[in-house]
Design brief:
Layout: E1 3-7, E2 10-12, E3 18-25, E4 33-39, E5 45-51, E6 58-60, E7 68-73, E8 78-83, E9 92-99, E10 106-107, E11 111-115
Parallel strand pairs: 2-11
Antiparallel strand pairs: 1-3, 3-8, 4-5, 4-9, 5-6, 7-8, 9-10, 9-11
């Protein structure tokens, strides 16, 4: 059974930090590009960041560039999102996504991040 399980969300004050984790199982993790996508209340999904299967290339939305860092550990079947200098507008449910050309995508259940004083 394929599973993507996010963790690490929570309530943090503006300027604070959180580290999200996504644990993968049931598929060949090292062959998939991984992404984080978020959805704020009342808004559509927003792509946040991606990392290629080998971990050598990373990509970021302009809204998070310089504040967020994506990484992965293929030995642990995990992808991470280090979020620094958090802003209220970062409040959203954060989802982990696995993508591989010619194969179906996989999604996690999401983890809530709330940035508020």
């Amino acid at each position: 059974e394929v599973q993507l399980v996010e963790s690490g969300g929570g309530l943090v004050q503006p300027g604070g930090s959180l580290r999200l984790s996504c644990a993968a199982s049931g598929f060949t993790f090292g062959s998939y590009d991984m992404s984080w996508v978020r959805q704020a209340p009342g808004k559509g999904p927003e792509w946040v960041s991606s990392i290629n299967s080998g971990g050598g290339s990373t990509y970021y939305a302009d809204s998070v560039k310089g504040r967020f860092t994506i990484s992965r550990d293929n030995a642990k079947n995990a992808v991470y999102l280090q979020m620094n200098s958090l802003k209220p507008e970062d409040t959203a449910i954060y989802y982990c996504n696995a993508k591989r050309i010619y194969y179906r995508d996989y999604w996690g259940q999401g983890t809530q991040v709330t940035v508020s004083s």
